[in-house]
Write a structure and sequence with these properties.
Helices cover about 40% and strands about 15% of the residues. By secondary structure, it is α/β, with parallel strands linked by helices. It has two domains: about 1-170 and about 335-350, 3-Layer(aba) Sandwich (Rossmann fold), CATH 3.40.50; about 185-335, Rossmann fold. Strands 9-8-7-10-11-12 form a six-stranded parallel sheet, with helices on both faces. Strands 3-4-5-6 form a four-stranded parallel sheet, with helices on both faces. A two-stranded parallel ribbon has the order 1-2. Strand 3 (about 85-90), helix 4 and strand 4 form a beta-alpha-beta unit.
């Protein structure tokens, strides 16, 4: 999320708002002035079942206290009225803790939903937490999404107003990659279950059985099979390496779960379109609805009925796709921009009561 939060900071700067990032990571440390790897997370970022398995129910209380305390301690301003908590990419325990902090300290809380909570077994608890925060911290709660489809779904579920914002991205311009006749396909990120690792393994199997002019770039965490068609990448990439693989790829491979991504957005999808890359996405996802607006249904795949390697070769050769992606990229460049986001977040923030 580096590029997202860098762009978010630029957007907020236009509004005169300082953007500080508090985060937790064991493997990564961002060397930026306003970023601090300071949050004490314990096991809150894991599945809550981990506490049950350890038979230590008191540990979750300790982790919650440490989590809340580490955030409150590292907020930029001691004047409560100047702090606005903004969260995205969170789970239930994290939302619960930030809700408590917001209620106790009366901090305005801005929540960006990237996924539809309806499909989760614990969906009702998200609903209860939002209701309680709304009740006890009235006019200090703002709900956002970056998908109009997701906004409509969550409005029906939470029975409250939700604003839709663009995805702010400001990717640096890179030199055009040199063509070498190899089709470079990148499946970005860690092999999470919702990102379709089983589809990647299907493609890998096709490449092993029938050697193609394709290089597949995937996380080394997925599998370790030596094959000339596969290049393994580290779990965490630097900005430079991330941009290099994004820029050098011919196809960005996004076989994401259609249940989770039916209304959920994808930053890497937007980044790929901004850089005018061909993408392959799952039928029935938000990405399909976006591509259909530009006549790019050929990039939407039903993986069960598709020979993936052959599909990749087809879209690689199809020059008619380029003009349509160019048109889509131009529109995205205007909508998913620093200025576009700044204007929309300003309108949304005006609804918050930042006074006691």
């Amino acid at each position: 999320m580096l590029f997202y939060h860098k762009a978010l900071g630029e957007s907020l700067k236009i509004l005169g708002i300082k953007h500080s990032v508090l985060y937790f990571s064991q493997e990564m440390n961002v060397e930026l002035a306003e970023w601090s790897n300071c949050i004490k997370i314990g096991s809150l970022d894991q599945n809550i079942k981990i506490y049950i398995k350890k038979l230590n129910p008191f540990q979750i209380i300790i982790d919650c206290i440490n989590f809340i305390g580490s955030i409150n301690k590292n907020l930029t301003y001691k004047n409560i009225n100047k702090n606005i908590l903004f969260i995205e990419r969170f789970n239930l325990p994290e939302l619960y803790c930030l809700g408590i902090l917001s209620i106790i300290k009366k901090y305005p809380l801005v929540i960006l939903f990237r996924h539809d909570q309806n499909y989760l077994r614990a969906a009702i608890f998200y609903k209860i937490i939002i209701y309680i925060i709304n009740l006890l911290n009235n006019k200090k709660l703002l709900l956002l999404t970056d998908s109009s489809v997701l906004t409509a779904n969550l409005k029906r579920y939470f029975h409250t107003h939700i604003d839709t914002l663009p995805i702010p991205l400001n990717l640096p311009k890179l030199n055009k990659k040199q063509e070498d006749g190899i089709i470079k396909v990148w499946w970005p990120g860690a092999p999470r279950e919702d990102k379709g690792p089983e589809i990647v393994l299907k493609l890998l199997d096709e490449l092993i059985k029938n050697k193609k002019n394709i290089k597949l770039f995937i996380s080394s965490e997925l599998i370790d099979i030596k094959n000339s068609n596969v290049v393994y990448l580290d779990k965490y990439l630097t900005d430079e390496l991330y941009l290099k693989y994004l820029n050098d790829s011919d196809v960005i491979f996004l076989p994401y779960c259609k249940i989770k991504y039916k209304s959920s957005t994808s930053n890497i999808f937007v980044e790929a379109i901004l850089l005018k890359k061909k993408v392959l996405v799952t039928k029935g996802t938000w990405m399909e609805s976006e591509l259909k607006n530009f006549g790019l249904e050929c990039l939407v795949v039903d993986w069960e009925k598709c020979e993936i390697a052959a599909k990749i070769e087809d879209i690689y050769r199809d020059e008619s796709i380029i003009e349509k992606i160019e048109s889509m990229s131009n529109l995205y460049s205007k909508f998913h921009s620093i200025i576009g986001f700044s204007n929309e977040i300003a309108r949304a923030l005006n609804k918050l009561d930042i006074n006691d």
